[in-house]
Amino acid sequence: MTMNEFRLRPDVLLNRLGVRRPSDIDLEAIAFHFGARVEYRSLESCAARIIGVDERAIITIDENSPEHRRRFSLGHELGHWLWDRGTFALMCKQTDLGETRQRGDTREARANRFAAELLMPRMLFREEARGRPITFDTVRYLSGVFRTSLMATSIRAVELGSYPAMVVLTGGRGRLWYWSGEDVPRYLQPRMVPGRDTSAHRIITGDFVATGAMEVDADEWFDHPDAENHVVMEDSVRSHGGSVLSLIWWKDESMLQL
Ligand SMILES: [Zn+2]
Q: Which of 66, 78, 174, 185 is 20 to 30 A (C-alpha) from 16?
């Protein structure tokens, strides 16, 4: 299998390297395997950078960032190395390394996608997530296993967890971003402003810090012709800058089959 194939299937690469458990994912060893040396230094103007010359590269990661961020940065730079190989130099800022920016065909989105696939390989993630509800308890457990951030892990849990689910980020003025799993129909978008009975609303208005997972009427979250006849599960927590991160999932999938 060539490097061009590995960049599309990091899980195959890991399998080839003998990775059987999440703790086997040794990013420095993978970098070494592909001719890249990794250095940790204090970086001022970016979060990570890569300088490639022919078959060799030097990747520098900001040593001051937390472990899950350093790992995501290294996965991201390895994505650049496998995709853009050759002679080039890139400085990646924290905004390029956004875990929420994995969609699209830009160079940065591609590198983010690669990082998520490398750090949380499909098979291993599915195994760990199997049968668990899509809650922050589950996400915290998985982020410990894979050493990834709450945000990156939430996205993966929604993609690969055992229930149809989505993750929604809401700010004071309404929805900022959301991501749904493949088994959630595309037309189903969360309301711009979650209903008053949602824990997201209660957290934003200051009534609660966090509520834990709870059942809520589906029309609190969705404009859907049949929403009033359904419920969804919701778990919300306060996130950065006063925003709220919510996991929404369906125990009963009948609402998704219309
Ligand atoms: Zn980058």
A: 66
